[in-house]
Amino acid sequence: MDFYIGLLQVIGVHSLLGLSAWCVLHTGQVSLAQGGFFAIGAYGAGMLTAMFGWPLGWALLVAALLSGAVAVAVGFPALRVKGLMLVVATTAFAEIVRLVFFNFSWKVSTPQGLIGPDGGLGFGGIRYFQSNAWSGTEVLLLIWALVAGVMLLLWSLDRTRIGTLWRAVGEDEVAAQSAGISLTAAKVSAFGIGGAIAGLAGGLFSHNTTHIEHGNFTILLATFAIAYPILGGLKSLAGTLVAVVFIQGVLVEGLRFLGDWRSLLFGALILLVMLVRPGGVLGAPLTLPAFLRRQVRRASVMPTERARHA
Amino acid sequence: MQWIDLLDLVQSVFDGVMFGATYALIGIGFTLIFGVMHKINLSYAAASVGAAYLSLLVVQIAPTPLVYLAAALLGGVLGALVYFVCFRFLPLNQPLATLMSTVGMLLVLEEAIVHATAGMPQNYPAAFAGVVFDVGPFMLRGDLMFVFGLGCAAMVGLKLMLEKTRLGLATRAVAQQSVAARLCGMSVSSTNATTFVIAGFLGGTAGAMTGAAIGVLSPLLTLPMTVKGLVVTVIGGLGSIPGAIVAGLVVGGVENLFQFLRGVSERDIYVMLMLFAFLVFRPGGLFAAPGGRD
């Protein structure tokens, strides 16, 4: 039972991460910076509770706001470029954040002894849940309540003017700009909100695992973050959730019996999904992939054509 | 700063520039593929390291120079494989689809390497490993000079190929205007495939050079090489081969400079900050007209 609770906690945290990437992808930008915002949230919230004894709620709020503020600050220069340049710029940012934490040591003495980030050794002892006697189920409920809250927020945002602006920019920047939409405002706001959600996810992650280190926040994590919405399809929020359950639940945990081969299959399945459903699993109406469709159409069109000519 | 420190500093920058030839090759590969297809192939550096690994299969039966040749050829084969699996059958108007498929390929290649070698780093043959030339107060390491020379040879070969052969002409035509190239009777998809093979040659060479310079191959090389290659591509300017060469050497030099000044754990921060400075002040890269943006 504990195993499944732990798995659901992981799925919840990764759902938040995927939703943060969804915001940015919704405006047509590919950002690999989500891992960096996740790291800022993880270290920030962990330091506030473990080193300074803040209550969790305030720590998560401040971590989310901090990540969001950093995202806005980075977004202004970074979002001037797009496409490959933005991928590289955000990669660089995420690497800078990771390397800063790799070199960051600051310990304070608390009733539990010296606690704080210790460079390459990581940051252990974020034991807020344990010292306040939270059960696994309670942590799980907290995580999923936050997932539900964020999804509700994004769902309603998507139905307001802001969501329309984001989608307009995502569909066609030139058309959006000529309709008088400020590209900078749309992109930076999506980046900021995405950053805040990633920070929240990071705060939950550090409290859930109790020990974090720079190796948790590599480019691979950011790749996963954008993989969820892309694999699930950008049209719906549910797609992100489906993709997280599929990747974390089925691929990472469900295939454990395959041993080493699991991770090999993992990349292959991402490839397969993209080959079969390039718009994401829930992206477009279910149709055959393009290269099969051509043949099917040829097969089905030919007889009628022939009939007409006959 | 002492005189002797200054010597060390110049020495380490110089070593970095030599090693930067590998970054330049990876950067050229990214740039070539971006040039013809306007897509990123994130699995490129992983395929390069993979080709170097595969070339280890011939290390027992062949002399060392053949190992490097095998790495280049296998790089070409992997390049073709990546093209057919990740690009050929995907809709090109969906930029995210090829991005994700190459990420999938990157994971597959990395895991295949880990699986085949049980995650253990493998020794890679180095040429002229013990040779050291003394030039005034500096010394030139034979293995790094060999790596640098190999990189230069690959770049010269690429330049000749692009400018003197019909294949190169087709590649440049597709990169400039793929519709016009098709109207002139060139097959865009086969030109794309050949470009992947050529980029694969360069990548395989770069993988072999990395192995020869460091002495070992490890699956941990793939992500840093991907990141450095992308950094080089952007600093050099997307689609600019001379830019990628200069940027590769500069990144190698700057990396070692900051490794000397600030230590190995902090050096990449400064490389990334340099990239950020470029993105803000010269987003078009080294050789582009200022203000040009993707």
Task: Set down the secondary structure blueprint.
The complex is a heterodimer of chains A (310) and B (294).
Chain A lengths: L1 H25 L7 H19 L3 H23 L5 H19 L5 E3 L2 E3 L12 H4 L4 H23 L2 H11 L1 H6 L4 H27 L9 H14 L4 H18 L6 H16 L13 H20 L1
Antiparallel strand pairs in A: 1-2
Helix pairs in contact in A: 1-6, 1-9, 1-10, 1-11, 2-3, 2-4, 2-9, 3-9, 6-7, 7-9, 10-11
Chain B lengths: L2 H35 L6 H12 L8 H24 L7 H23 L4 E2 L8 E4 L2 E4 H23 L1 H11 L1 H6 L4 H27 L1 E2 L4 H15 L4 H22 L4 H15 L13
Helix pairs in contact in B: 1-5, 1-6, 1-8, 1-9, 1-10, 2-3, 2-4, 2-8, 2-9, 3-4, 3-8, 5-6, 5-8, 6-8, 9-10, 10-11
Question: What is shown here, in short?
Answer:
The complex is a heterodimer of chains A (310) and B (294). By secondary structure, chain A is an all-alpha fold. Chain A contains 13 helices and 2 strands; from the N terminus they run ααααββααααααααα.
Architecture overview:
The complex is a heterodimer of chains A (310) and B (294). Chain A has 310 residues and is mainly alpha-helical. In chain A, 73% of the residues lie in helices and 2% in strands. Chain A has one domain. Chain B has 294 residues and is mainly alpha-helical. Chain B has one domain (3-281): ABC transporter involved in vitamin B12 uptake, BtuC. Chain B contains 11 helices and 4 strands, in the order ααααβββααααβααα. Chain B has a two-stranded antiparallel ribbon with strand order 1-4. The longest helix of chain B has 35 residues, at 3-37. The N and C termini of chain B lie far apart (42 Å). At the A-B interface, helix 4, helix 10 and helix 12 of A face helix 4, helix 9 and helix 11 of B.
